[in-house]
Amino acid sequence: xxxxxxxxxxxxxxxxxxxxxxxxxxxxxxxxxxxxxxxxxxxxxxxxxxxxxxxxxxxxxxxxxxxxxxxxxxxxxxxxxxxxxxxxxxxxxxxxxxxxxxxxxxxxxxxxxxxxxxxxxxxxxx
Length: 126
Description:
By secondary structure, this protein is of the alpha/beta class. It is 41% helix and 13% strand. Strands 3-4-5 form a 3-stranded parallel beta sheet, sandwiched between helices. Strands 1-2 form a two-stranded parallel ribbon.
């Protein structure tokens, strides 16, 4: 019951190439991209719109999540109407990410059970 989309500042072709290189492109059938808009919040809104059309569902705010590794991801995710998960794998200090009050905060994704608990139960983790 988890539906995945991509929201990135990369243009679609570059994003697809990066995901193919990691062997995960097939998990992201839809998204919003830098070629759609230069405003990251708008890119996330475009990703949501395309996701709702692609999956044939309306995703309510409590069921929308943005996962990112920068403070901008958290800020733009919240501005787009989503809950946020911050992961300190992108070179940003975990304390800085914590200061932006994401719904969930992780050093990395090794605790995948806690991650799923937050997403599936909308529980606070900070």
